[in-house]
Design goal:
Elements lengths: L2 H17 L45 E4 L15 E5 L16 E5 L14 H4 L9 E3 L2 E5 L5 E6 L3 E7 L13 E5 L11 E5 L6 E7 L4 E2 L2 E10 L3 E8 L2 E3 L4 E4 L10 E7 L7 E8 L3 H11 L5 H16 L2 E3 L6 H13 L5 E2 L14 E2 L4 H4 L3 H8 L1 H18 L6 E2 L2 E3 L7 H10 L8 H13 L13 H6 L19 H21 L3 H10 L7 E9 L5 E9 L41 H4 L7 H7 L3 H13 L10 H4 L9 H11 L19 H11 L1 E3 L6 E3 L6 E5 L6 E7 L9 E7 L2 E2 L4 E2 L2 H4 L3 E7 L44 H7 L1 H4 L1 H7 L1
Helix pairs in contact: 5-19, 7-8, 8-9, 9-10, 9-12, 10-12, 12-13
Bound molecules: 2-acetamido-2-deoxy-beta-D-glucopyranose (NAG) (11 copies).
The site of one 2-acetamido-2-deoxy-beta-D-glucopyranose has 5 residues, from loops.
Length: about 850
């Protein structure tokens, strides 16, 4: 039996057990099946996906998994053969940067050599150990692994509490008595612990309580996390604390400094047990951001009796309830596609995390969510996806964002571990609020206050705009663009990205008009509509683009955005710089202070980022046929990279040029080639669940233009998809006639909505809330469906030049690529959060 087979058999056995008590059908044409069988949490657990593969509830604060010492261990566990360093209880998912969280790891030994506690190895760097690859099982609310020492560990969680179950190999055969030792390490994944961590061990009960101060992974400030660990399963033999590599049963309390060597001194507590025989030892670890007493009360109320099975089943039920409103017809579609789909859906609900009741920063009755990591990534499709599937939670997230504005003065653009995260471009929480407003989220949201928050972004410059808001607002208002080498004495941040910031601020201002219109603020609608046109001020109509990275070939396209100085003279950035094909190793494209005028992508790709005025953009770029040629060139020449979020909308922008069929074709070009249900199957960091939401929306056949009440229609990747609105209980359905699972028939020939002919190539959110039925008739060639100006999605400007346009007007064929083009070098260049160069530069 190969390891792979062992692993998948373990998985299906476990799923079979999990399915008891729920409606499960082996019949692929009948409607009912257990959605959880298609969740593969290990997707993205290697190759830089950085996905959290462990046990969590939806939006759970407790996230339990095995941590590894991989160079890419942001999600804790990395399936790349690196060593396990321990089992910790808080994580983020899919992020780059230095790893977040990973606080308070446990580590087990069957016995200390010679029965001497000093012979057990305490420091993380030396205790780490390989795992048995075939032993890994990861399913909703559950993670299990066996260490090379023979100790196997499985785990499940509630909202604030992890429950670990340790099973120790029989040792008597070797003539040794087993006397397991479990240590608790005052550490985190990135070794960021600051001074004066502490732990106390109760001699009688073995309870460990403590806390430590840590640093956020992509932001400013610090945070204190608290824990409370209790044990059960075997009589306690002794316990105590350790410092560095020495332990004592006499000492029960430890306060420990970071020490001076740039590495926190190893320290923590330990507990030793009488031989448990075949019994498991359970460790219940409550976490809190308020106090260790609260960590204890969280643990006691959530897992009162250490009941592993009940806790696991409750977690599964919660996940099943969240995901099962989306049902597809599985006929003809293989499990790979189903796993891509449902795992993508699953990952949208791992982060952000619900820390309600755990916020020490301000007093409030509002919900508190954290790990918006980062909104630049999340606004594009993850938050819109949750607005469809879990609007009640998005409502709470919006209330939390607004409450953060109330108490910290600004909406976040990124936030993790109670700290302000770095801003990547625009004030993109504006887009999140606008999207939710347009889609009717209201329960308990004070939209006047929400509006004040987005206007604050548009009008007031923060002193530190690396953390919030926007920079360069004086220039923005007076010149109508963010100048390269701006003069800005009011606020401070990294003076780069002038092109991408101008484009994002333009869109942010447009989204503000959407809320303003709904609230009847007509003057503001006009003011911000005007500013939303600022993108035009950076367009240089005669700018050419040669591929200097490959033979200096003329791309043939003329007219690109360019950086512009305060004196209105244009500067120059090669339109392909920071693109996927930029091979110049000296180009830096992220938040480094030597970074480019575009963030994590090229002028080529940002050329399309005018989500609110595609009509005017299409005219600006030479009309619909030229626009389609340019989009094709962007994709076919690999200038864009689907592993980073700015690529998402470009897959679907053919709709605006009257070519919805090409969006469908492009979507199938990327899925499944770039999205596979394997450990290495993601093209880049998942970025919370951003990649997951791209796959989920794409395969559902609707893709949002976030911040607008618009979903662009392509055929779902299934014969049918239905989504039951958790708000209205109404079920929306998309059905494909002539569906074929080999995806030859991917072109819509005609459509009906609730039985009436429907020619628009987009639909609005009432489709979901009112439970409409969209029936698409498919064929193997493009048709005239959705191609007329009247069929196109809304745009601020007027569509022009569509009269003579026919679907024959471009001959560009899409290239199918068998191999992924994400080289490690490239992702470092693109992704500041995995690079580390910024730190070196800013510290050096
Ligand atoms: C599958 O389920 C459907 C609906 O319940 C039923 O009509 C059909 O006979 C079943 N097919 C098989 C092969 O069991
Ligand atoms: C699923 O699709 C197949 C193939 O089109 C069809 O025969 C079957 O009736 C559908 N099942 C359901 C439950 O709609
Ligand atoms: C472990 O097994 C998985 C699944 O079979 C495989 O993708 C992965 O590469 C393996 N990891 C190592 C380090 O061999
Ligand atoms: C894992 O740790 C073992 C020692 O336990 C060491 O021999 C091995 O090289 C480590 N593996 C990796 C990938 O670091
Ligand atoms: C087991 O016993 C042997 C010999 O008695 C000793 O050398 C070894 O260290 C023991 N192992 C453990 C884990 O205690
Ligand atoms: C840490 O503890 C030491 C010794 O008690 C004390 O002098 C110091 O002020 C503490 N540092 C912090 C940051 O609390
Ligand atoms: C505008 O400013 C830039 C940058 O300082 C400078 O290179 C350029 O010559 C100036 N243009 C004019 C017309 O003064
Ligand atoms: C939706 O269904 C749930 C569960 O059956 C029920 O509690 C709720 O009141 C329903 N909501 C509406 C709007 O019908
Ligand atoms: C599943 O179906 C897709 C689409 O037809 C195909 O590309 C893929 O190779 C299939 N996967 C497997 C494992 O058969
Ligand atoms: C449409 O076709 C006519 C006649 O061939 C041509 O004169 C006109 O420029 C075309 N318009 C566009 C927008 O291409
Ligand atoms: C595309 O061109 C073909 C052959 O020239 C023609 O038969 C077809 O009608 C054209 N399609 C459209 C939609 O113009």
């Amino acid at each position: 039996m190969s390891l792979n087979m062992a692993r998948s058999q373990g998985l299906s056995l476990l799923l079979a057990a999990a399915a008891i008590g729920s409606v499960v059908s082996q019949n692929s044409t009948s409607g009912s099946y257990d959605v959880l069988q298609y969740v593969n949490q290990l997707i993205g657990s290697s190759n830089g996906g950085n996905v959290f593969s462990g046990a969590t509830l939806p939006y759970g604060m407790a996230k339990a998994v095995a941590d590894t010492d991989s160079g890419s261990n942001q999600g804790g566990f990395t399936d790349d053969g690196s060593n396990v360093t321990g089992f910790s209880s808080m994580h983020d998912s899919g992020t780059g940067g230095s790893p977040s969280l990973g606080n308070f790891a446990l580590f087990p030994y069957s016995a200390c050599p010679g029965d001497d506690i000093d012979q057990c190895v305490y420091p993380k760097k030396s205790r780490k150990i390989p795992y048995v690859n075939s032993s890994v099982v990861a399913t909703p609310g559950y993670f299990s692994i066996e260490l090379a020492s023979g100790v196997s560990v499985d785990m499940t969680t509630t909202q604030h509490t992890s429950l670990f179950r340790f099973k120790f190999p029989a040792m008597e055969a070797e003539g040794n008595a087993s006397s397991p030792l479990i240590l608790m390490d005052l550490t985190d994944l990135s070794d960021s612990r600051q001074d004066n961590a502490s732990i106390s061990v109760d001699a009688e009960t073995g309870r460990m309580q403590g806390n430590a101060r840590f640093l956020p992974s992509f932001g400013s400030g610090n945070y204190i996390a608290y824990f409370c660990a209790d044990f059960s399963g075997s009589p306690i033999r002794d316990n105590g604390i350790y410092a560095n590599s020495r332990a004592s049963t006499d000492v029960k309390d430890l306060k420990i400094s970071r020490s001076i060597n740039g590495y926190p001194l190893p320290g923590g507590g330990f507990i030793r047990f009488e031989s448990p025989g075949d019994n498991a030892i359970l460790a219940r670890v409550g976490v809190s951001l308020i106090s260790s007493d609260q960590a204890c009360s969280n643990a006691e109320s959530e897992i009162p009796s250490f009941n592993f099975e009940a806790t696991h089943t409750a977690a599964e039920t919660e996940w099943r309830n969240k995901i099962s409103p989306i049902v597809v017809n599985r006929s003809g579609v293989n499990d790979s596609m189903l796993q891509n789909f449902y795992s993508g859906i699953y990952r949208t609900m791992v982060n952000p995390q619900d820390y309600t009741g755990e916020n020490p920063l301000w007093e409030s009755d509002e919900p508190y969510f954290d790990s918006f990591y980062c909104i630049w990534d999340l606004f594009r499709s993850q938050m819109p996806f949750l607005t469809v599937l879990d609007p009640a939670t998005v409502t709470k997230q919006i209330r939390s964002l607004i409450d953060t504005y109330v108490h910290e003065g600004w909406l976040p653009d990124c936030r993790m571990s109670l700290c302000k995260g770095y801003t990547q471009g625009g004030s993109n929480a504006d887009n999140v609020l606008g999207d939710a407003y347009l889609k009717g989220l209201s329960d308990g949201i004070d939209w006047e206050l929400g509006y004040a928050a987005v206007v604050n972004d548009a009008e007031n410059e923060p002193y530190d705009w690396s953390n919030e808001g926007r920079g360069g607002l004086d220039s923005w208002k007076s010149l109508g663009y963010i100048p390269v080498q701006d003069f800005d004495y009011k606020g401070f941040g990294t003076m780069t990205r002038s092109v991408s910031r101008t484009l994002e601020y333009s869109y942010n201002d447009f989204v503000i008009t959407q809320i303003a219109a709904g609230l009847g603020k007509q003057g503001d609608v006009e003011k911000y509509t005007g500013r939303s046109g600022n993108w035009k001020n950076l367009f240089k109509a005669d700018q050419t683009s040669y591929n200097i990275y490959d033979g200096n070939v003329n791309t043939g396209f003329v007219g690109f955005f360019q950086p512009r100085y305060l004196n209105k003279t244009f500067g120059f950035q090669d339109p392909l710089k920071c693109s996927n094909i930029d091979t110049n190793e000296n180009d830096v494209c992220s938040l480094q202070n030597t970074g480019a005028e575009t963030f994590e992508s090229s002028i080529w790709e940002y050329s399309f980022f005018v989500p609110h005025d595609q009509a005017t953009l299409i005219t600006t770029l030479g009309g619909p046929a030229a626009f389609v040629d340019r989009l094709n060139y962007l994709h076919d020449q690999d200038i864009t990279y689907i592993g980073n979020e700015p690529a998402f909308l470009t897959v679907y922008q053919y709709h605006y040029a009257g070519r919805p069929g090409l969006s469908a074709k492009r979507s199938h070009f990327y899925i499944p080639t770039f999205f596979q249900p394997t450990d290495a199957g993601l093209p880049g960091n998942d970025d919370s669940g951003a990649m997951g939401s791209f796959v989920a929306f794409s395969m559902m056949g609707l893709f949002p233009n976030p911040g607008q009440n618009v979903y662009l229609i392509i055929p779902p990747f299934f014969e049918s998809v239905s989504v039951t609105s958790p708000i209205t209980n109404k079920t929306a359905m998309i059905r494909n006639i002539n569906f074929d699972a080999s995806y030859q028939n991917i072109y819509i020939q005609s459509a009906t909505l609730n039985g009436e002919p429907y020619t628009k190539n987009w639909i609005d959110h009432s489709f979901f809330t009112e439970g409409k039925e969209l029936v698409l008739t498919l064929g193997s060639t493009e048709s005239a469906w959705g191609t007329q100006v009247a069929d196109l999605p809304p745009s601020l400007g007027t569509y022009e030049g569509f009269g003579n346009f026919s679907i024959n007007s471009t001959s560009s064929a899409m290239r199918k690529r068998a191999v992924r083009y994400a080289s490690a070098d490239l992702s470092e260049k693109l992704d500041f959060k995995t690079g580390g160069a910024y730190w070196a530069e800013s510290e050096g």
